[in-house]
Specification:
The complex is a heterodimer of chains A (109) and B (113).
Chain A lengths: L2 E3 L3 E5 L4 E8 L6 E6 L6 E6 L3 E5 L2 E6 L4 E6 L8 E8 L5 E3 L3 E6 L1
Chain B lengths: L3 E4 L2 E4 L5 E7 L5 E7 L6 E8 L2 E4 L6 E3 L9 E3 L8 E8 L8 E2 L3 E5 L1
Parallel strand pairs in B: 2-11
Antiparallel strand pairs in B: 1-3, 3-8, 4-5, 4-9, 5-6, 7-8, 9-10, 9-11
Classes of the chains: A mainly beta (109), B mainly beta (113).
């Protein structure tokens, strides 16, 4: 079957660094996505990885290892506004996205 | 209009009633999607459309139907609502099925009693 696992909740301190992990087992692979979702709002796109390695975009970076079925999202210099849920999704061979349940990130001052 | 709009914002519905959730985008995107989001579960795809006039089934299509008469509109219909369809429904769009970024509407919170 298809499965995406990520931690349910994480806590970090303002100004620190946090890494949110995602492991997946899917039928086919056409890319891995990270989205941010603030409470009560719609998801918004953060990053896309299709090749192994690290993609950096400002304070956010995303890493992919296809052989290990593993990705992480790295958030640096955490700000209070980064408190949100972070959703990992994989696009399978039929181009539909399979989504993880999301990781709720709590930032403390 | 800028982006994707959904209506209504929220709705309480009696079981057995018919309900249509509306979705409109002004970005001229070819692909559109309907997801449901339930606590503790990831977003699940209900139906999608690759282009006007074509639709496809997602992971959880039972009890739902869609149509795509034109590029901009993608309504989702619950023919006879049941309590298990209580959820938050998101409409999304992208330039194509294989385009990287999907843009989401603000969501419709539906409660079926």
């Amino acid at each position: 079957g298809q499965n995406i696992d990520q931690p349910t909740e994480m806590t970090a301190t303002e100004g620190a660094i946090v890494q949110i992990n995602c492991t997946y087992q899917t039928s086919g692979f056409n890319g891995l996505f990270w989205y941010q979702q603030h409470a009560g709002e719609a998801p918004t796109f953060l990053s896309y990885n299709v090749l192994d390695g690290l993609e950096e975009k400002g304070r956010f970076s995303s890493f992919l290892s296809r052989s290990k079925g593993y990705s992480y999202l790295l958030l640096k210099e955490l700000q209070m506004k980064d408190s949100a849920s972070y959703l990992c999704a994989v696009r399978g061979r039929d181009y539909q996205l399979i989504w993880g349940a999301g990781t709720k990130l709590i930032i403390k001052p | 209009i800028a982006g994707i709009t959904q209506a209504p914002t929220s709705q309480i519905l009696a079981a057995g009633r018919r309900m249509t959730l509306r979705c409109t985008q002004d970005m001229r995107h070819n692909a559109m999607y309907w997801y449901r989001q339930d606590l503790g579960l990831g977003l699940r795809l209900i139906h999608y459309s690759n282009t006007a006039g074509t639709t496809g089934k997602g992971e959880v299509p039972d009890g739902y139907s869609v149509s795509r008469a034109n590029t901009d509109d993608f309504p989702l219909t619950l023919a006879s609502a049941v309590p298990s369809q209580t959820s938050v429904y998101f409409c999304a769009s992208s330039e194509s099925l294989d385009y990287n970024e999907q843009f989401f509407g603000p969501g419709t919170r539906l409660t079926v009693l």
